[in-house]
Amino acid sequence: MLLGSAALSEFALSSRSNLRVVHVAFALSAKLLGPPLAALCRRLNDWENYKTQHDYDLNLTLKYSLLETVNLFGMLWVLTFVQPFVSPTICDAKKLGLDCLDQAAHLLVTMLAVDFALSLWDLRDCVVDEVLPRWLRCLCGSRQSIQTDEDRVHLLQSAPRHNLSVRLCAELELDEYDGVMFDYAQVIITFGFVAWFAALQPLAVLLAWGIATLQIRIDAFRLCCLTQRATLPRS
Hints:
The chain is mostly helical.
C-alpha cells in the first residue's frame, strides 16, 4: 500500500497493529529523508552557480518545497484524492473496517504525532540549559549561576557584558545560522497538513498547534544560544 509493494500492503492490512507499525515506519523514513533532501538541494544550487543571492535563495526554496511536498504529502494525497476514485479496492481493508480515507486519517495523525515527539526531543536542550537552571535558582533562592552541559553556551551567557571580546569569541565558536528557510519550513509543513487534510481527522489541528508552539521556542533557543547571530542580507 505505502510503497507499492503487495507484500507490504498485505502485511499492513492484516491487523491494526501492523498498520500502525507501517505508518510509524513511513513517518520516520519521511523525517529522515528531510536532511538529505536539503543537502541535495544545496548541492544542486551550488552546481547551477546562480549570479545573485536572490536567485540562489529563490531556486533553493523552490527545490526544497517540491521535494519535501512529495516526500511528506505524497502518500496522503494518494490515499485521499487518488485511490478512492481510481481504485478504491486496492486499499480497502474490510476486515479492519477501514477504507482509504480512514487509513489516510491514521497516517496523518501518526505523522503529526511523530513530529510532536521530535519537537519535544529538540526542546530538551532548552529545558536543561535554560528552564531548569532558572527554576533551581528560584527554588534555592540563589543568584549564583548554575553550570550547564554546554560550556560554550554557559560562557556566552555568563561573560560580563562589558567584556565584548570574550562574548564575541564565545559566539564565534557556535555554529553558523543556516537561514530562515528551514525554520519556516517546519511551520509551513505543519500548516500544510492542516490545510489539506484536517477534514480527515480534527485531532490533527491540536497536534499541529502543539508542534507550532514548541517550534517557536526551539527556534528562539537555537537563535539565542546555539548559533551565531543571523547575518542580514545586503540591500
